[in-house]
Amino acid sequence: MSEGKPTLLVIGAGIAGVTAALEAAETGAEVVLVEREPFIGGRVIRSYNYFPKMCPPTCGMEINTRRLERNPRVKVLTSSRVSAAEPNGKGWKVTVTTEPAFVNSRCTACGDCAAACTTEVADPFNLGLCKVKAIRLPHLNAWPKRFVFDRAAVGDDEAKAIAGACSYGAIDLEAKATTATFDVGAVIVATGWKPYPLDKLADLGGDLQDVIANVHLERLASPGGPTGGKILRPSNGEPPTRVAFVQCAGSRDVNHLPYCSGVCCLASLKQAQYVKDQYPAAEVTMYYIDRRTPGRNEDVLLKTSALEGVRLVKGKVGRIEQQNGSLKLHVEDVENEKVIEAEADLVVLATGMVPSAGDDDLALFTRKDADGFVLDDLGSAVTVAGVARRPEDVASSVRDATGAAARALVAAGRRA
Amino acid sequence: MDKLGVFLCTGCGIADAVDVDKVIEAANERKCAATLTHACLCAPEGLAAIRSTVAEQQLNGVLLAACSERAKAAEFSPLAGDNLVMFRTAIREHCTWSHEAGHEDTTMLAQDMVRMGLARLEGMKAFTRLQEAISDTVLVVGGGRTGLEAALAAAGLGHPVVLVELSDRLGGRLADQVSVAPEEPPYEAPQANPIPTLIDEVTAHDQIKVLTSTAIVAIDGQPGQFKVRLDGSSGLELTVGAIVQATGASPYDATRLGHLGYGASPDVVTSQELEKMLVAGRVACPSDGRTPQRVVFVQCAGSRDESHLRYCSSECCINTLRQVNELKRINPGISSAIIHKDLRAPGLMEHFYLATQKNTGVMITRGEVGGVEANGKLKVKLQHSLLGDDVALDADLVVLATGMVPRSADGERIRELIDCRHQAEHSESSQVRETSAKRAAELVSHEGTEILHLSYRQGPDLPTLRYGFPDSHFICFPYETRRTGVYAAGTVHAPMESVQAAEDGIGAAMKAVQCIEMAKRGEAVHPRAGDTSYPDFFLQRCTQCKRCTEECPFGTLNEDAKGTPQLNVLRCRRCGICMGACPERIISFPDYSVHMVAEMIKAMEVPEDFEEKPRILALMCENDAVPALEAAAANGATWNPWVRVIPIRCLGSTNIVWIAEALSKGIDGVILVGCKYGDDYQCHYVRGSELANTRLGNVGETLQRLALEPERIKVVELSHDEFDRVPKVLDDFAEELEAMGLNPLKGF
User: Fold this and answer.
1) Where are the domains of chain B?
2) DSSP secondary-structure letter at B219?
3) What's residue A2's pLDDT?
4) With contacts defined as CB-CB under 8 Å, which chain B residues touch A290?
5) Residue B266 has pLDDT above 60, yes or no
């Protein structure tokens, strides 16, 4: 490392952003890591298990959190976003806006405030599948370990009662948004993805209660999820007996996302294992165009397809409708050249990944492709990591993020 | 440390749950120099109170009896320093949040936690971080695209690079390709081969030294100080700081693909053989030189096949699409067809798939190839295809998309082979000679596969996972190999396309540079990144049992001729597995040792049997089991108050002495809670939990000698997210012990 240590900005603290920030900081760089949500972990922290090992993402995140806590070179700004960026000759001058800290760093996460709070809001950590207190720890392993307060949801009297319940002076009802500016040598864009919205998939029953997205099933299967880890039909809270996974729900489709989202086959094969683990007698059917399980992830395909009661059918689901208590699927069965009808009581749509940066218009997204993915621009000292760049799985995102940290340091070094 | 202070936080409900005076009494039993209670130690006022007490009383050790070390680290960590050690005991999570408020058992638990914390601190030592001479140079092994990119990245980061390549030229397999798959939007057409530009950049770079026709003779030493001997014309010896292994992959041996017609006709070729024609700009049937009218590509030739490679080779579908494009470009009259099991064009390669279909008119169909008939015209026989069952496609040229096999060597298997051969010849037992010879025969394929020639007791190369990929935690930490400072990248690392291999090379170069920088700062690398402590071996008492040298998952220890361990501290990951293995207890960290934990166990108060308060020791992995327990506490769960938890670095650091100490003291049972092991292990130190389980399997005899039930010791595997299960694990064990009755050794 050359002498003058560059400062890097990392946007997004999902697995790619956290990795890029840590790899750069452990190498010696100063890093500012900016995250929109009040906690780190992004999409992976909301998953129950990783494929192919079927292990919890919180396990690796625990190590990454310890790395962050031990490293004085990373400054983490949560509940924050980059509100402006302009080239400054050597790199970028960025402005970061942080939401009002109604709960500040004096918070001990003791929970006294939540006991005084009666208002409930839809739980963003659980993707709105359940309600939580307006003031709460965002989730059990949240880091920073600090409560968040959805101030707007609560009336003034209750807010005062909540603030009064805190013995540590951690609640500041007058808190204002703050901004800070940083001069950085290079930027790593790790803004990740959001699921393709169900409301654009009306043909596939996106508006029906028992039609859920793959990201929802991750929450349902998680011990920290809305059902305490039980996979249940949203309509009646009953265990499902026939579960259908519909692949390419919005992906590989000219009317929606023209690209393949890269991970959904593996996600569904993994989730079929969740279902079979909980309900060995359940019938599980997965409708697919191609089973894309590259590399050693082939093991997941082999394991799931060998399970009794699991069927993989090559076919495109065209329509799903409610039929009394269950769901009716119209499937084009390509193998046998006919249209078949099937029934299920829980349908999981394998919705794809939409790049989060797609709709954002920051000056530092200097290159974007037609799908909204951001591209490296080393000349402008911008590198991109993870799904901000292209659809990919966690292992690829981590590799990619490590490389992005190197590319950013090299780009910053050239300009310094 | 000898001047200790106890700082008991009374906030977060602690004072409501325990008798604070009694907890302070317990602290004073051990003659600490100062005690302080405060309603919020983590607030600026609390921190100031700690600092002033430390200064006034000239303390050199601080016990924080407050929240878990996983909370408020930013506030508390800066308290410790060169002359002040700190230990945190999680009264809040492990005691007051999770036990009945006001009950005497809850106060007794807090008292024990303070006693145990002080015992730990008494043993802790101040230390200075390592300061070693560290080489900045990165050695890159392999000059394909991955190695070239790694070399440029490391050099770009300001580090000198030596790139060694076995063959006489750079570029690797890719050098023989006419193009690569699209890497830039709109991802629709093949791109120019980047290899020539990369070679130019590398050879022109003044920080990169390229050595072709060069192999490694030996690598001695440790990260920061590897001594590398090379063959080749120079016979060069050099010192490097870290290594990137980018040795690539070989195409699967097509002579084993007779069932797909390879060998039956010269017109059945591999994708590499077709590529040569594409590079030459003329595609012809090898049998008679005629231009083929129809070329049929057969995917998964050797991949996704139980009899060959079980995995998918990842690049072949994309590579075939690229070849179809090139074929069309060279000779628009040739028609192509692709037979696949699934067309794998993941992510943005979907654009390439669609564009190829549109631009070339290639027929792409799913099917299993049942064989290739080669009587005159070639016939590709298809089963279960979309075209129907048992149909045949005519072809002039058949191209087998052969998979890739990593060019790796499994160092541990090589070592085992050498050991078995030695035993087969020299063992005194005929039975050992026989089983060793049998095992050696199984391992014979590893003979002569060495690449890195590491002079490590545990073998000359990176250990590999299933399928031969040198990895250890390939999801969360894909660069973690089991040899510190050596990073695999590219197609040796995992099956991947060339653009991914390029990126992987850059990532591995980053890790190599990072390892060097961390070594300079005296810090451990992953997973205890930033830890500046390191183990000390008191070798005068070593009995050369070799358990530590055999069990270290990271090959840290070599042996001298007598079997005494030789520590290579820069290879060490600080897991403490050696410490758990050592029967003589001679391995210690300044803040973690067999002695310190044994003293913690001794410090527990074990009530006499008439009090009917059993005691249970829980040794729990600090990375997974303890976080699960603390999440349970935060979620309002409770568990049995007889349990005393000691967080440990890794279950593998458990020394049997701790168990013996606990049981002989009258503690009723010991439970170890650690990570899952087996093929899909979750242990961050790879083998720790498995080793602990093996070691405990051997204590049955000791227990019998003490006339104790073996069920008083239990090992449980638990994942980080199982907060809902962990209280029950502890409660169930307490119930089992209750049924067994109290430990008869109580009071002796």
Assistant:
1) 1-126, 138-248+449-520, 252-402, 536-581, 606-748
2) E
3) 39
4) 342-344
5) yes
Which two structure tokens, joined as six digits, stand for B187?
């991802």
Domain for residue A394, yes or no?
A: yes
Q: Please determine, for residue A4, whether its predicted confidence score (pLDDT) is greater than 60.
A: no
pLDDT of residue A3: 45
Are the Cβ atoms of A228 and B720 closer than 8 angstroms?
no
Query: How many angstroms separate the CA atoms of A44 and A25, rounded?
Result: 22
Q: DSSP label at A50?
A: B
Q: What is the ipTM of this complex?
A: 0.97
* CA pair distance B524, B554, nearest whole angstrom: 13
CB atoms within 10 A of CB B158: 15
Q: Does domain B252-402 have CATH number 3.50.50.60?
A: yes
- Determine, for residues B346 and A391 on separate chains, whether the beta-carbon distance falls below 8 Å: yes
The structure's pTM equals 0.97
A394–B475: do the CB atoms touch at under 8 Å? Answer: yes
Question: What is the distance, to the nearest Å, from the Cα of residue A265 to the centroid of all Cα atoms in its chain?
Answer: 17
What is B138-248+449-520's CATH topology? FAD/NAD(P)-binding domain (3.50.50)
Q: Tell me the shortest Cα–Cα distance from A329 to chain B, in angstroms.
A: 22
Residue in A140, A268, A353 to test binding to B, most B beta-carbons within 10 Å:
A140
> H/E/C letters for each residue in B51-86?
HHHHHHHCCCEEEEECCCCCCCHHHHHHHCECCEEE
- How large a percentage of chain B has pLDDT more than 70? 99
Total domains in chain A come to: 3
CATH code of B536-581, in short, is: 3.30.70.20
pLDDT given for residue B234 in this prediction: 64
Q: How confident is the model at residue B254 (pLDDT cuts 50, 70, 90)?
A: very high
Q: Mind giving me the DSSP string for B141-183?
A: E--SHHHHHHHHHHHHTT--EEEE-SSSSSSGGGGG-SEE---
State which residue of chain B sits closest to A27, comparing Cα positions: B514
The range of the structural domain enclosing residue A49 comes to: 7-99+177-193+354-415
Domain membership of residue A223 (yes or no) is yes
Within chain A, what is the greatest distance between any pair of CA atoms? 70
- List chain B residues with CB under 8 Å of A405: 510
What local confidence, expressed as pLDDT, does residue A5 receive? Answer: 67
